[in-house]
Amino acid sequence: MRLLIALIFPWFAFFTIGRPIAGILCLILQITLIGWLPAAIWAAYAVSQFHTDQKIRRALGR
């Protein structure tokens, strides 16, 4: 679900993973039409890293 949000509303995806400052920067990037694609790629990457970090934490028992 977060991946879909990252593609449609890239700035909002950062708020869902607890990175509000990155979300604001992404929103500024997204305001320009040319910046939409880099913002979506950045948000999708951040969401995938968030999921990876969660899996590592669970594997280590933290």
From TrEMBL:
The chain crosses the membrane at residues 28-48. Signal peptide: none annotated. The keyword Zinc-finger does not apply. The keyword ATP-binding does not apply. It is found in: Membrane. Keywords: Membrane, Transmembrane, Transmembrane helix. Belongs to the UPF0057 (PMP3) family. It holds the Pfam family Pmp3. This is YqaE/Pmp3 family membrane protein. One of its GO terms (cellular component) is membrane. It comes from the Bacteria.
